[in-house]
Design goal:
70 residues, mainly alpha, 41% helix, 0% strand, binds iron/sulfur cluster
Amino acid sequence: MNDQNKEKNSDCTHMNRCQMYGLFELDDSVEVWKILYCRGTYTRCERYKMAERGLRVLPNLLPNGQTIEV
Ligand code: SF4
């Protein structure tokens, strides 16, 4: 199994401190974000990428790079 396949079924390493993940946990209707990113290929998540680069992550930034009203 290569590294990319291993990541597909891994939990995001930022879950415990990610504000957006906290919101996802409160609302079952947004389960798809968790499946696609938080418990899926989290390295594609814009929040994850910014945090890994040491950049400030906006609280309303979605994994796909769009923002929402909070
Ligand atoms: S939203 Fe992104 S950074 Fe936050 S837990 Fe999910 S994959 Fe990780």
